[in-house]
Amino acid sequence: MKRKVGFILLVMGFTVLSGVSISARETHKSRKEVMKAPIRIIIRFGKEIFTSPRKSQQRSSSRVSVRVKPVSRQEVHRVYRSSSESSVKTKTGSRREVKIASRANLKPTSIVPKDSEMVLIPEGEFLMGSSEKDIDEVMKLCEESRKVAPNIQCDRADYKDEIPQHKVRLDAFYIDKYLVTNRQFMKFVEATGYKTNAEKDRIGLIVRWAGNYEGEIITKEDGSVNWRSPFGRKNEINNLLDHPVVQVGWNDAVAYCQWAGKRLPTEAEWEKAARGTDGRLFPWGNELPDADGKYRANYGKDRGKADGFEYTSPVGSFPLGASPYGVMDMAGNVWEWVADWYDETYYATGPAENPQGPAGGKGRVLRGGSWGNRPESIRTAVRLRSEPNSGISYIGFRCARSY
User: Are residues 212 and 147 in the same domain?
Assistant: First the structure.
């Protein structure tokens, strides 16, 4: 499907487009290119494509309508999207104790290297991706979301990159139990003097709530928005030290993980750590995130207020949302960078053992959903892509390590 667009910005499960012809799911251009003409954009969150004109007006397309207003380059920018997270407290065994266990009977075990607890995910097969029956359920969830956000478009084609569901076998590996926090990232920066993409480019993107499952994206080009000031307020991470670090690109995530003696998880590793071996919809099972009035994720219901956190939350805040292995915040809170390049058809052609993703592509993969997403967009199988340099107020990461 082709649309007329002038630039493309892919953020946390939605795509914003506006004037040249590009395919509906094409990856976005560089941050500098996109930000030459800052605008305020009203978006509706999900995997829909958003088209937006440059002049102030409201326009509808076959997929969704977007309101756009010009904004000065000096104005602070904000954006909203859905995610979930949890808090951090754990007892851990040493790496040596883990190694003593028989590799044939590995059980999830924790280790603590460089201030981050890791969980051992055992070797073996799991179900990756979605079945046609799963997509039927996604459509039902989407229709429920439409009851509070009527402009949402429910299209099965938006989820075809999750098909076919297939068995994948992985070697054992470790993964961070929690998302990397501002406190941890600060130690990395203090030790290395590292500068993120947002700091070097002096470009920041913020998402702020604008309605039910609807957000406002604002760009900032004066260097005031970066991981230290993720929402444009000076020194604001002093109150967010245990929240996940955001405003970091894929390259920034890779740099941190390498410094910590780790790496980004592959897409397959991330999904197994999130859903276990039974093909469940969410890390905790198949129940909705708010089943029985108990919240399992930081996501976008009631503009993020229903779960107690309007935007990001301290990692580990939703213990009921733990994965089968005890990994936290795998649904909502912030989208997570993984190692792989994105390929919509990779599931049909990739290897069945230890897949590493395609050799190249137009964007890197994001997983997990964020604080602004709808329930169907924080499932364990949801895939999103973004240009590697992109940073925004709902993208973070966690690290992994080979066993």
Answer: no
